[in-house]
Structure formats: structure tokens, C-alpha cells
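Researcher: Re-running this chain for the archive, since the previous output was lost when a drive failed. Same request as before.
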Amino acid sequence: MDTEQKNPGSSLRAIIREPTLHFFLIAVAIFALYAITRDDNENLLEISQREIDARIFLQELSRGEELSAEQRQLIISVYVEEQILVQEALAMGLDNDVRIHDMLAQKMRHVLSANVIQPSAEEMEEFYRRNRLRYEIMPIVTADEVVFDTTEPLSTEVMALLENQAEPDALLAVEAGTVSVLPRVNRVDLSNIFEDEFSQNVFATSINEWIGPFASNRGQHWLRVTQKTAVRIPSLEEIIDRVRLDWIGAEEELRLQQEIDKLWERYSIVIIDDV
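Model: Regenerated C-alpha cells:
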């Protein structure tokens, strides 16, 4: 007597694991569902083979390999389950929910705006011309920052050095502290680090003039601007990718609104005063 005859349980387990059996069972389940509901159209559930194939394709694409029979069967089972749950949710009126309405509206917006084309060179130039100020680059400075360890008034010697635009090393030789560089910061950056009034004073000062003090828990801060870059608008060539994305966003919004306006024409809107 061979092994299978001695151990019939192992043969049964092998049959259960057979992929063909899985497909057969789910086919029977779907057929049974149809047989039960064929006389009641309200419960008829039609399964889309195209949707199943698309889901299998996307899974294989993301994995980079062909799915096994068991994995395909799982995808089919999940899809059937989803459709059953959707039908039950609709029957229970769960679609009448503000959150569901928001999600459906957002999805419709994506559907309606899905065919936005790329801009031509002329459209890019026109969009850039009309929106040049949007791309304005704020003035930028690079500054030396000296932080004296004390918050007390500085000595006459140190104040004289500051007024004479002394180098940081000369200042720190007289008063203890630290020095660092603030590279390429704009007015907003400085306002976030210090405060708006101090930031404005720094940008209004001349090159190499010390501005301060600004008190903090570290001590007192003094800044000296070493480089300034005036406000400017970059050329289209410098920011062409950004302009392209902005054009697409604006065009998408325009076309979306046009499609929504068309949908409005198909409906008669009545507001019921049910307060």
C-alpha cells in the first residue's frame, strides 16, 4: 500500500490547496448568489470581469511578477465582497452621509478634470507675462551675527568698535560671545528668527553696519549685513517647470469649473425652507 493509501488525510489537504478547486468554489458561490437572486432584481449582483482583470493587472504591475492562482482568487473574493458591501450600504441608506458626499464630489472633480493637456510655448509665455509678480523673489541678505553673552549694556570700548564697523573677531576679543553667519535670508526668515521690527531694521541698514541689540535668552544679538540681493523676478527660463505646473493647475481648475457649470444646467435646483 502506498503513502496516499496509508494517509488519506494528506490527499485531502492536497486537494484543498489545489488552485483549480478555489476557482471552482468561488464560481459556485457566484452562481449560487445569482440563482438565489435571479428572481429578485433588487438583489441581483453583476460582477465585472473587466474590473477583476484590471485589479489583477495592477497588482502584477506593482509586484513586477505574475500572481499565483491563490492570489488571483483572493483578489476576486475581495472584489465580490466589496460589491456586496456596497449594495448593502446603499440598501441601508448609508450613502446619505455628508462624508460620503464629500468623497464622491472630490472623485467627480478628478474625473471631470482628468484630460488636462500640456501648455504650448505661447501659452506658457502668456501665463508667465500675466502672473510675473507671483514669481517675485524677495530681497535677500547674508549677515554676520555676533551674540554677546551678556544682556547688560556693553562697554564704551565695544560700542566704539561696533560704530566703527569692526570685524567680529575684534569684538569678541573684548567681550565674550559667539559669531555665526546667516546666509541668504529674506525678511520673513529674519522675522521668524527675531521679530518683524528688527528684521526691517536689518534690511534697511547699509552694508557692514552693525544693528542691535536684540535680547534673547542667549544674550544680545548684533547683525552686520555683508551682502544684499535686491528684489527681482526670474526669467521664464529659470522657472519654466514651476510655471508649467502653475499653468496646468490653473487650466485644470478652469476646465473643471466649466464641466461643473455644464452639470448645473442639467439640474433644477430647489432650496426647501425646512428650518
